[in-house]
Amino acid sequence: xxxxxxxxxxxxxxxxxxxxxxxxxxxxxxxxxxxxxxxxxxxxxxxxxxxxxxxxxxxxxxxxxxxxxxxxxxxxxxxxxxxxxxxxxxxxxxxxxxxxxxxxxxxxxxxxxxxxxxxxxxxxxxxxxxxxxxxxxxxxxxxxxxxxxxxxxxxxxxxxxxxxxxxxxxxxxxxxxxxxxxxxxxxxxxxxxxxxxxxxxxxxxxxxxxxxxxxxxxxxxxxxxxxxxxxxxxxxxxxxxxxxxxxxxxxxxx
Length: 254
Hints:
about 250 residues, Jelly Rolls, 2 domains, four-stranded antiparallel beta sheet, globular
């Protein structure tokens, strides 16, 4: 028998699935939320969540809209933010915070740390809202239908998360198009419109950020860094690094 829970949000609700899959139903839609995905619901929303998996685990945080410190009508007007699953434990600040929180939740003293916890998620939520506001403006070039926009956002974020997870491997456009469920031609065009860079540019940016981190860390050879980041040889890595940071990696670490 599936476990069914019926409730009503008491604030801006952040719902995160740690394990398994949950099926959410509101008056507006029905959606499945898988492991490491999250959804955001408005205040005073009646919902029903159904879990068909014994090992399903998740949590919900409700944030008082008054604590957001912004004009709440501006925050609520972007429909892209609400009632759809987001993949982003690595590529979205809010998703990363929810993921980290899920791994440390048992160690929190909520009586002592609740204000700090909510403040952290509030800041991440506002940053995510700003990102989606920009993406919403970009999507107007493609379609004005909110339903289509939401589908595209969900699919594009899934592909972006894949890039963040596998940036040190070779990633083909065919793979990303298949993961997102968007045709290869349309995927490349829509991805760049929304994120202001191509998938390859995003992968390169992640590699360069990781390269700086490795160069600042424990002593490791440039050749090892090159191979760890997925380059075929040191020369290829050095060329890309110099193009990105204007200096070769050998000079950066001195």
